[in-house]
Amino acid sequence: MKILVLNCGSSSLKYQLFDMTDETVIAKGLVERIGINGSRVKHKRAVGEDIVREGDISDHTEAIKIILGMLTASGTGVLKNLDEISAAGHRVVHGGEKNAASVLVDDAVMKGIEECVYLAPLHNPANLAGIKALQRSLPGIPNVAVFDTAFHQTMPPEAFLYGIPYKYYESNKVRRYSFHGTSHMYVSQRAAEMLGRPIESLKIITCHLGNGSSLTAVDGGRSVDSSLGFGTAPGILMGTRCGDVDSAVVLYLVQSEGGTDRVSDILNKESGLLGVSGVSSDLRDVETAADRGSERAGLAVSMLVRSVKKYIASYAAVMGGVDAIAFTAGIGENSDCVRKGALEGLEFMGVKLDGAKNSSIRGCEAVISAPDSRVKVMVIPTNEELMIARDTLRLTKK
Ligand code: ADP
User: Which of 5, 50, 142, 147 has the maximal Cβ count within 10 Å?
Assistant: First the structure.
């Protein structure tokens, strides 16, 4: 059974075609600058050279037609015909409270995603456009929506409510949703597999540290707390997002900078590693600048590390212990400095890193704690697309 997974942004589209008999990726790629001059498709196959196509692409429907054309092209295609694709899985950023799990797309689901546009105005419209475009191009196949928020719907009210008047939750569903749920679910399940223990018996803290970052407390396989919120800026310091800030700071900026749009840009696009270091939102650049003596770059890294440490300790407290801490995404998979810094001082909780192992691990699965560490520390590259393909298979298998 072959499954196409789509992850649509407003002007981009990432895709992967899986053969679910052995979960291999047959082809994958990225379409950039949809609806903007200079569109580009980069198409990779399991075997053979990458194929690049340049030329304007007006919308997601055209992008999908081009991808389907590449998948079936004579000579370079990986499919004989499109009938081989049994189903499509779509990443949808916001499912609100209604969607606590992946679902087969029907009219009611589409309406539900539309109702969540006010919660994710940049993402949900693009996700809807992707589903509609695929429905037009491959009308015969089922579509499954997999929500970034779904995994966190198991958080208890004391974790998801804010200390503001309850009516804002009742009337407008103002609450913590958090995101990256598909990644946290994948990494926590993989951690349990690597430990050879049932996930139901484990307390795991998953640290998804990329440009956007979040930590999640996973107790018995269920998300019980997570560091992103109603929006995507709270929690730990990120590439350009501020992480936790006092509401008084936000109010002060609204007053002094003149308006919410400007402050939204400050907190989401000009803050974080970039805002503090003044160098870059990319940790590699910030680490290099710190090594060359930039105090502010060093400070940005210290703030990131400290915020990760605080969340790890607080989530251990929330769960009454922790069996494993798993690092994933660009920073979590690659930065031994951030991993080391975040865990330093947590020996009192039973965390003991194997320094040499930690320094040697980049972008691959490994246990990096010392053999006698009570808490296992792991690096697990995330695979949200595989998770989406698995859910799509489960919901569409006859
Ligand atoms: P996104 O949230 O956009 O998917 P990624 O998960 O790709 O982001 O993470 C991007 C971050 O990972 C950047 O800050 C980048 O500097 C960092 N990163 C990637 N490789 C390394 C590395 N070898 N060392 C340190 N940081 C790295």
Answer: 147
Comparing C-alpha atoms, which of 83, 90, 100, 119 is closest to residue 9? 90
Q: How far is the CA of 329 from the centre of ligand 1 (A)?
A: 7
282 is an active site residue: no
User: Which residue among 331, 336, 339, 361 is best mutated to probe the pocket of ligand 1, counting the most ligand atoms within 8 A of its Cβ?
Assistant: 331
From residue 111, alpha-carbon distances to 62, 91, 388 in Å are 23, 16, 21
Q: What is the pLDDT of residues 99-115, one digit of tens each?
A: 999 999 999 999 999 99
In the reported structure, the alpha carbon of residue 5 is separated from the centroid of ligand 1 by a whole-number distance in angstroms of: 23
194: its two tokens: 């690597």
Tokens of 44: 């990779």
Q: Which residue has the tokens 């810094």?
A: 341
Element (H, E) at 15: strand 13-19
Average the pLDDT over 215-227 and give the result. Answer: 98
Domains along the chain with CATH numbers: 2-147 (3.30.420.40), 197-384 (3.30.420.40)
At 275, the amino acid letter reads G
CA–CA dist 276, 296 (Å, integer): 6
Query: In whole angstroms, what is the distance from residue 73 CA to residue 335 CA?
Result: 40
